[in-house]
Each structure stands twice: as structure tokens, then as C-alpha cells.
Amino acid sequence: MKFGETFTEYLHGDQEWFLDKCSHVEYKQLKKVLKRCRSRNCKDAPAGSESNNEGFCQCESCPLCDQKFFSELIKEASEIAGCFSSRVRHLLQLHISNGLQRYMLRLRHCFTNDKELMAQQGRMLIEYVTMNAIAIRKILKKYDKVHSSINGRNFRTKMRAEHLELLQSPWLIELGAFYINSNGVSGELSDQFSCDLSSDRPVMTLTISDSLKLEYSLTCAICLDTVFNSYALSCGHLFCKACACSAASVMIFEGLKAADPETRCPVCREVGVYANSVRMIELDLLLKNRCKEYWREKLHDERAETVKQSKEYWDSQTKFMLGF
Amino acid sequence: MAQAARQNLRMQKELKLLLTDPPPGVSLSNIDDANPSSSSSLFSLSNIDAEIKGPEGTVYANGVFKIKIQIPDRYPFQPPNVTFATPIYHPNIDNGGRICLDILNLPPKGAWQPSLNISTVLMSIGLLLSEPNPDDGLMCEASREYKYNRQTFDEKARSMTEKFAMSGIGGSSTRGGSTPSNQSPPMIEVKGHNLEASNADNVSRQKLSKVSRKLSLGCQKRNDGDKDNVGIDDEQLPCQDNSSKVGNDSINVIPKPSGNFRKLSLKSSCSPQTTLTSDKENVMRTQCFHTNTKIGFGATSDSSQSTIGNHVDQQCNQDHEVEVNNGSTNQSQRNHSGIGRKFVSLSNSPRLSSMGSSKLSLMPLNDNCDTKQHCQFHNEDENKSMIYMGSKMSGIRKKLSLEISTSSKREAFDNKENVPPNYQLTTESPSVTSSGFMIPQAGNHDAPPHQYHNERVANDRLGVDQKKHFKIGKKNVSMESSGVIQRTDADHKGDMLPVEKLLLPPNVQSLDKVSGKSLKLAHADEEPHKYYGEEVEKINTKQNEEVVSLINDTVIVLDSEDSDEEIKAPTRSRLSLARKPLAGKRKGKA
């Protein structure tokens, strides 16, 4: 079955109510744009040289297509990413929050119950993001094929640089952790997400299809250990909170948001990634469930470090105030 | 603590990673035994020695470079301190081994990231070796050469690699590594030589082989020349012959080796001496045998020995000894007017003094021929030498006399020098021995011989001989002093054997003695006297022989000069000859 058909089927399937509120890739329209480009090329060269017969645009970039195609695609991608992250956040908030906050949230949702619905929602979100990611990938591939250029690939790297690549989003990892958590409780094993925390290189694996597997390393690049109390910088790299704080030379209790905006990501050297860092609560929960010992040990260490740092900080502050 | 613990944890992980999956061409030298997985000590974790192979197809190919990695306290957030321990010629690596690499500095200037690790650092160093960056050079010269004169750069880099990073990994590279920037390559080489010389007598002898060979040749020539005079025993006389005939050759030879050879010879001689001294007791007995055997050799195989440097030396020594034994002092000393004589005489002198009575025992070993020869030598040589000596020596003697406590006696004898040759000959040997002993033995040996000489000379042989000896003694002394100084220097360098160190105090004593302190001499003498007791004779002879053999290199040179002078131009001042080899001090004295 062609992907276009699959995608249409997905869009108009039983989850239509869910997708109505979300933007998605206008796969068909984008395809039409490319088709027009091809047909126009054919008209331009009716004699039909070999290359034109194949329907390929010879020019590296065709202004008409580029204008429509890429602007449209990037708009959609950013919309999808935003929608996805907000949805995931909303979902996780429901799941993670506790006590009164949770009660209030439930109250707002009219006590629609929870676990199954939430798990289902999570599954739907995963499907949503994977379908859209594949759609973007496919349409870009088609673009490259039609124009015999590498603009499509370049566009993908550009998207990744702007953190619009859906499959690189830290929220996907969060969602995966949530998925595993909820499934672990319900006992129903997920085939899409799996994670291996016991080996030297802890990874979370997302299986989209037989040929497409994504691996997310859960190793902190600074302490080379499994991330603990992990934070994802907006570039998508995961670190322990303590490690990230010391890399940004801020106190642990100050939090990552206090970091100098000029501070760079320890891995990709990108500037200003600390401000929008995301705390990976679900992942931490997963760790807590999976490796209790390690988690407790780490928690102890981090707390000791935090206390020590704050002690030093307040010592210096008081000294400063007293005029020493 | 948490920080340190975390760092420790990370280091362990990194080392594990390094060991299991090292970057191409990199190996860890000191971690292998340390079991990085188990909690190895912090020390080994904060100091890592790695070895990186020069990338193939570059000027550093086949070289193995040692890299020292120091992990700072705030490690993942501070770059490791990486330096080359092996000298390398590279635009981005300076003489101290510091590396100009952006990832080794903190962000404002550099590009270090906490996510980088030692493995990546080593990998980028490997890349730096294959792709130097002359635009950001640490070594101006090297980067300029790399840019504009690639050929010379390649040559230099290749030679440096060969010198420090190949095969010699164990020796030179490590040495250089300890202080790569400070030590210049030549220094290292010198050290190597010294070590070799000090370690293996054989090696030094081999190096000296040229000199010894020349000497041997000289010996042969001498034999020929002496044949007329001596007739029967050419073998014993070889040394003398050589010196006289070879004269010019030997002189020429001397200046060449003077630099390195001298040092080597001195060092070598020193080392053997030390060994000898240390082993004196043990060696003594064995040596006695040796001497006896040697004597026999001398009689039988002198001519054949001439070819081999060591043999020649031994032979010469043997000859000298034999002569001494036979003639009791006259023959050998006369002929050997040079330093060789002095040494021989020195060696002989103790024998003579102590031997006095025991000469007979040695005598039997020596053939009748020897005695005959000696007699002949004594007569002829004595006369000649006496004359020369008398004229030449007078000045020197005075100086010597000043230096030596017994100088007064000697002076008196000096006057007597003109008197019968026999006297002089006899006296010469002891005096020579005394002075000579000081020089070669430097250590404990020096003291004893002096005493012996002094006493013996004074008592038995009268002052006459001493005069001659003074001449020789002066030369020897000067030689000794210079030699001692060199030795001491060598000792300070640490190249010398431990035995030498033991000797050092004696050397100092000897120096003091030279300076004219008779008291010290006497003290030193006492010890040796005790030592020698009955065996003193044998021991002395043995020691002397050994010393002579060891010193032979230097001695030989001296001998040749002396002999030449005597024979060819007796009127020439030996002093001049002596001056050449000797330091400026000698000149001043002369």
C-alpha cells in the first residue's frame, strides 16, 4: 500500500476526533505541488528528452516549488511539534501530578477516567507523531527525487537544527517513558517502546517499523552514567541535573534556568539551550522503578551535593552581608 | 567529596572505555596492571601514560610517542593536561611537549567540552600528528618550515622520530621524556656513552681499541727496535719500542682521542679501578694468578699480543711488571719513561718495595730471559733515561718534590740523578710507583702506594730513584689530578659506578695529597699497609696491573709520548708532550 493512502486512512480513521484538534502534514497537497512541478517540466520540454521523460526537474531548485513546498512544510512541522509537545505535557501533567493538584485536574476533566484513557491517549500521540514524521520524511524524499537535488536532505538537517524534527524531541522520550511506565503497570507489553537500562549503555528504543528503529541514549555525556534527574536541553541532549548545572557553573538549587544564556550545550555547543530545558519527570520515574538502588544512591549524592552547595552559597552570602 | 567520587567514577568508566575500545594507534602503558575496573588508586587515575603510534604515511610513522595525561580536579569540566613525553618535531607541539590543540583549552579560547573524554582527546592528537596546523603554530620555526620548506621539516621530524621514538623507547625516549625540553639530545648521548663505558670495561676498551691498537703497533715496532739492544726478550719491551718508534704516530693519535677518548678512558679506567678496588680482596688473589700468568704470557706471547688492544695493555703491564720484578726497578722504569712507565713503575714499585724480599717468587715465574733483558735494558735505558730525566726532571722534580712530602729526599736524589744509572733506575721505580699510584688508583690504592713508595724509597732504595719518579710522578700527578677531576665530575653526574663513589673519598684524599699534604697520605697509607700485610706485594702488583690495564688507554698514550720524546728527541721536554694531554694546570706546572 502506498504511504499516501495509509496516511489518508490514518487521518480519517477512528481517531479523527483526536486529530481534528491537531495540525498534521498536508501530505496530499504537498504531493500535488510536486506533481505540478513535474508536469510543468514536461510541458516545458515537449520533445521529451530522456531526463524530462522521467519527469525530473533538472534544476537544482525550482523557485515555485521551493516557495510553496518548504514554507508549507516548515509551518506544518513546527505546528505539529508544538501540538505534540503541548499534548504530551498535558498528558504527563495529568499522570505525574499528585495530591490536590491532580484532584483539581481531574475535576476539570470531569473525572474521565484515567489510566486507560491516558494510556490510549499516549498511544495515539505516539502514532500521531510517528505518522507525521514519516510523512515529512517521505515527502522530502519525493522532492529530492523529483528535483534530483539534495535540498530535501538539507531541509531535514535544517529542521533538526531548529528542533522541529519530531523524532528527536525530548518529549518523545518522555512519552516513551510514560508509555513504558503505564504499560508496565498494566502488564501489557509495548512493542513500540523498549528500554534497556542494565547494560553499559542504557538506551531507549523506539520501533516505528521493521526498518526504522530509533535509539535514544540515556547516558549522561558528562558523568558517563545513566542520567539521573535528567534535564533535556532544548537541543535535545540529556544530562543529569547536577552535571548540567556544574557544566553551566550554576548551583544545583538555582536550577538550569539560571544559567547564563551564553552557556553552550556540553555536547553540541549550541547557545541558549538552557533556558528552555525540560525536566524529564517520566524518565526519572522510569528509572526509579527500574533501578531502585542506583536511583536511591544518586538521589543521595545529589542531595548531599545540593546541600553542600547551598551551604557554601549562603555562607558566602552571609559573609558578604556582614562585610567580611 | 561527591565531586571527587563522581570524577573517580567517570575516570573509571573512561579508562574502561579506553582499554576496551582504544582509538587507533593508542595504547595505555601504566593502566594495564592497575585494573581500572576495580577501584584503582586515585594516583593512577589522575596520571595516565599513553602511547600513541605515529600515523602511517607521515613523518612520524613507526614512532611510538609517550603521552602524559594529567587529570585536573574538576576534570570533566576542565580539560585534561596532556603533554608529549617523547620529544617530537611538530609545528603544534613545543619542546616541552605542550600541545596546541583547541580542545585542550577551556571554551573562551579553546573548545573543551565536558562531553569530550580522553579517548577523543587522544584521537584528535593522532589526527594532529597526521595533519599539523602550521597556521596556529606553537613552534614558529617548525611551522614555517612546514609551510615553506616542507623537505627540511620532514627530514628533521623524521630524524627526531628515529632518535627518540623508535626502538630506543626504553632508553633514550624515556630519558628525554623526563625532561624533554631541558635536555639537549647530545647530553643524552653523552650519558649513554658514559654509562656504557662505566658499565662495561669491554666497551670502553673497544672504544679505546684504536688507541690500544696503535699502542700495540708501537709495541711491535719497539720490539723490533729493541731487539738490537735487548736481543733475547723483545716481548717484554714492546711497550717501550712502540713508544719510541711510533713516537709520531702515537703523538698524533693522542690529540684525537684527547676529547672523547680521554673522558671515556678516564671513566672507563675509573670504573674498573673502582671495581678493582672494591673487589680488591677477592681480586687480589685471582689477580696474583693473573699476574703470574701474564708474566708468562709476556715472555711467550708478547709479540702476538701486540695485535689485541687489551692484550697489549696487559702485556705491557706484564712486561713492566716483569721488568720490575726482574730488574727490581731499573729496567722497566727507564724504558717506560712515559706515563706507562710511571704506572708500571707505580704498580711495580709497591711490588718492589714490598716485594723486595718476595721478588724472588715473582722472579721464578719470569724467565731468565726477562732478567737478562731487564739487565740490558737497565744498563742502556737507564743511562739514556737517566740523562734525559736528569735534565728534564730537574724542574719537574722540584715541583713534584714540593707536592710530595718526600720531595726533600727526592731533591737530594735529583742531584744524584747524574750519578750512576742503576741507582736512578732502582729509585725511579719506587718513586714512580708512588706518584703513579696516586694517580691511577685515586682511591684507597693511592694512599698505600705512596706510603710504600715513600717508605721504601727512603729506606731501601734511597732518594735517588725518587727523583726520576718525581718527574714521572709529576706527570702522573698532573694526569691524575685532571683524571681525578674528570672522574669526580663523572661521579657527580652519576654515571660512574657505585664503586667509584666509594672511591670518591679516596680521590679527594689523593687530590689533597697532591696538594702536598703528606699527613693525609700517611693516613691513607696506613690502611693499605694493613691490607697488604703479606699479600701486599701480590696485591699491589695485581692492583697495579689492573689499574694499568684499565688505565692503559690513557697510560698508553702517555707512554707513547714519553717514549717518543725520549728516543727521538730526548732533549725535548717531556713536559711539552705531557702538556698536550694534560690540562692547563700541567702547563703551568711545567
What characteristics describe this protein?
heterodimer, A: 324 residues, mainly alpha, Herpes Virus-1, 2 domains, three-stranded antiparallel sheet, globular, B: 590 residues, Ubiquitin Conjugating Enzyme, four-stranded antiparallel sheet, 23 helices, BAH1 (chain A), Znf_RING_CS (chain A), metal-binding (chain A)
Structural description of this entry:
The complex is a heterodimer of chains A (324) and B (590). The longest helix of chain A has 34 residues, at 63-96. In chain A, the strands form two sheets. A three-stranded antiparallel β-sheet of chain A has the order 1-2-3, with helices on one face. A three-stranded antiparallel β-sheet of chain A has the order 5-4-6. Chain A has helices at residues 3-11, 16-20, 27-44, 50-53, 63-96, 99-108, 114-147, 151-161, 170-186, 241-247, 281-290, 292-322; strands spanning 193-196, 203-207, 213-217, 230-232, 238-240, 278-279. Chain A has two domains: 3-168; 193-322, Herpes Virus-1 (2-Layer Sandwich), CATH 3.30.40. Chain A is mainly α and 324 residues long. Helix content of chain B is 72%, strand content 4%. Chain B is built from 23 helices and four strands. In chain B, strands 1-2-3-4 form a four-stranded antiparallel β-sheet, sandwiched between helices. The termini of chain B are far apart. Chains A and B meet through helix 10 and helix 12 of A and helix 1 of B.
